């Protein structure tokens, strides 16, 4: 598949460019015509795609089953929020304990705070990688899960930095369609190119058989760290974008459920497929909106049933179980979108239409 | 000139001594066979040499440097490559990428360079692809370059494993039962192939093998292991006539047979 992709490069480049222009034209149109709610959904889509694709790098491409994205998103969200909120606003919201000194007076532009969110998260991911990648398989999942909890507990208790359970309020809603989709495109570009490169091959080799990869001269520890750190960088920035979209953050937002949702997305999309993560993120965002109905009170005849909050999670969990049992490959397996595949598909469909006439 | 030496290696798992006081010296250009009954400790010796196991005792030297206890990837990058007894390909990756992965250890570009597709990276990528293609030609797998490695036949998978090991640019090649599961004709082809790549790539080869035709046919020197200890070494002729080897390796009934 890699070869087809390379052979038709000029055509593919033009098509990719055109679709990006198309996407942004649509966003421009949506900005003027769509409701606030619809725009919120579009932003969610972009952020979830960014998160899922980054998470897929470590879980699907490098094959290291880990459960930490909620921690990375939280670190990114807190970092960028603490850097953008105005000193006056900080003084008002930190009522229990004041914010420690350098942070209390800093107010940076949005883009710089996002960059800082990425760098800080990547750095913490890097540090965390040393103990984490001493273990493999189930143990890796458990250790990373623990790390996610540690970050949440720290956020809850480090009053003079995170404001504890009260969280951070009064963020300026900087995140708009341009930011979220612009960064999504950048993430897709970066991770796509990385995955297709020799470095991506090294990561896949580790996924397929770590002993054999080592025997072929691949420093497995280094590439696990690379996948983990890169994934931390992008998830951190996505966290910053998320914080400035919803304008209020608190530790309760970054529980294991966030990781669980992302896990469902990448498994349903097909572990290891970037295309799958994208498709599945869109389905997830719109699907969970459509499923809102199941959490509302309803009545069967004269029987009144009150709304059950969390019902959607039950449905998603069932979907995950079904996928794991009957369709482990997910939507895309490990396949990727390519223009060649699309053209071939269209040609086949056209041929079938002609024959049926 | 001594290329490789292992001195008094021992590997003890809990109470089990898998290998005891194993020493071996290999000169550049040798083709040495390591034989012995199942469970004699041959693969354990391989795993100690390649860094998959850390010897309980003893030292390993390669090109005058001690390599005992280095990580497998470091040992490979110094010039010792291996194949596995139970084939361990990257099943889900295309055949050509299986081979290209072995070039990665010698890449100069950074990962940022790879993402930006700098001229240096593009050149290196092309070199990797061309090099891998040339190796696939040597093992007659060019037609399958873009197939998943998992769909290849058994013999093809064995050949791909050798190609992948060769791509790491080794000086010493360790082959762990390369003829396992092959029919006589395939085995004959394999023997010719091993001799050919040994000349072509100026390799030194250490070979574990059960098939006596292979061992006796191509090895210059044979070392026999039994219950973790070396019981004999010598030329194929000497080994064939060594009563201790016949007793250990072929058992009571096997005195005449294939040996």
What do these coordinates show?
The complex is a heterodimer of chains A (357) and B (259). With 357 residues, chain A is mostly helical. Chain A has a domain of 238 residues. Chain A is 73% helix and 2% strand. Chain A has 17 helices and 2 strands. A two-stranded antiparallel sheet of chain A has the order 1-2. In chain A, strand 1 and strand 2 form a beta hairpin. The radius of gyration of chain A is 22 Å and the shape is globular. The N terminus of chain A is likely disordered. The relative contact order of chain B is 0.17. A 6-stranded mixed beta sheet of chain B has the order 6-7-8-3-9-10, sandwiched between helices. A 4-stranded antiparallel beta sheet of chain B has the order 2-1-4-5, with helices on one face. In chain B, helix 5 crosses helix 6. Chain B is of the alpha/beta class. Chain B has 2 domains: 169 residues, 3-Layer(aba) Sandwich (Rossmann fold); 79 residues, no CATH class. In chain B, 37% of the residues lie in helices and 24% in strands. The longest helix of chain B is centred in the middle third of the chain and has 20 residues. Chain B contains 10 helices and 10 strands. Chains A and B meet through helix 10, helix 11 and helix 12 of A and helix 2, helix 4 and helix 5 of B.
């Amino acid at each position: 598949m890699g070869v087809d992709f390379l052979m038709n490069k000029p055509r593919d480049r033009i098509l990719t460019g055109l679709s990006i222009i198309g996407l942004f034209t649509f966003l421009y149109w949506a900005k003027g015509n769509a409701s606030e709610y619809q725009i919120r959904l579009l932003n969610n889509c972009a952020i979830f795609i960014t998160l899922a694709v980054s998470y897929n790098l470590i879980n699907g491409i490098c094959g290291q089953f880990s459960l930490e994205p909620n921690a990375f998103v939280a670190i990114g969200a807190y970092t960028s929020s603490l850097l953008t909120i105005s000193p006056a606003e900080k003084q008002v919201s930190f009522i229990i304990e004041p914010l420690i000194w350098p942070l209390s007076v800093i107010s940076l532009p949005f883009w710089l705070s996002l960059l800082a969110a990425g760098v800080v998260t990547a750095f913490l991911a890097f540090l965390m990688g040393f103990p984490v990648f001493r273990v493999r398989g189930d143990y890796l999942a458990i250790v990373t899960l623990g790390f996610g909890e540690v970050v949440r507990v720290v956020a809850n208790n480090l009053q003079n930095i995170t404001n504890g359970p009260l969280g951070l309020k009064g963020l300026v809603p900087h995140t708009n369609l341009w930011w979220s989709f612009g960064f999504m495109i950048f993430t897709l570009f970066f991770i796509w190119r990385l995955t297709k490169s020799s470095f991506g091959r090294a990561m896949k080799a580790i996924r397929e058989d770590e002993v054999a990869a080592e025997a072929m001269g691949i420093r497995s520890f280094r590439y696990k760290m690379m996948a983990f750190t890169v994934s931390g960088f992008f998830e951190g920035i996505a966290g910053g974008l998320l914080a400035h979209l919803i304008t209020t953050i608190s530790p309760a937002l970054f529980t294991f459920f966030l990781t669980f949702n992302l896990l469902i997305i990448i498994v349903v999309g097909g572990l290891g497929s970037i295309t799958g993560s994208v498709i599945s993120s869109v389905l997830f965002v719109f699907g969970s909106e459509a499923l809102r109905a199941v959490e509302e009170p309803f009545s069967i005849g004269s029987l009144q049933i009150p709304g059950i909050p969390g019902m959607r999670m039950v449905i998603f969990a069932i979907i995950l179980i079904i996928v794991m049992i009957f369709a482990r490959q997910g939507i895309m397996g490990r396949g990727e979108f390519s223009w060649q595949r699309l053209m071939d598909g269209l040609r086949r469909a056209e041929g079938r239409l002609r024959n049926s006439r | 000139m001594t290329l490789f030496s292992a001195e008094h290696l021992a590997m003890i798992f809990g109470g089990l001594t898998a290998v005891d006081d194993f020493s071996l010296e290999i000169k550049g250009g040798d083709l040495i066979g390591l034989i012995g009954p199942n469970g004699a400790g041959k693969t354990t010796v391989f795993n100690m040499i390649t860094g998959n196991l850390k010897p309980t005792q003893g030292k390993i030297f390669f090109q005058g440097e001690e390599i005992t206890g280095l990580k497998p990837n470091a040992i490979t990058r110094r010039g010792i490559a291996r194949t596995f007894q139970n084939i361990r390909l990257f099943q889900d990756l295309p055949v050509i990428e299986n081979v290209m992965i072995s070039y990665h250890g010698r890449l100069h570009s950074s990962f940022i360079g790879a993402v930006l597709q700098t001229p240096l990276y593009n050149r290196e990528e092309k070199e990797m692809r061309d090099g891998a293609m040339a190796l696939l030609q040597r093992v007659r797998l060019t037609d399958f370059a873009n197939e998943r490695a998992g769909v290849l036949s058994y013999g093809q998978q064995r050949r791909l494993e050798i190609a992948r090991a060769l791509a790491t640019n080794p000086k010493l090649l360790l082959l762990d039962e390369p003829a396992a599961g092959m029919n006589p004709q395939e085995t004959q082809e394999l023997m010719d192939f091993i001799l050919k790549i040994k000349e072509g790539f100026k390799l030194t080869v250490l070979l574990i093998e059960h098939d006596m035709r292979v061992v006796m046919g191509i090895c210059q020197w044979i070392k026999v292991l039994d219950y973790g200890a070396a019981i004999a070494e010598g030329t194929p002729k000497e080994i064939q006539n060594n009563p201790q080897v016949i007793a250990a390796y072929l058992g009571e009934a096997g005195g005449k047979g294939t040996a």
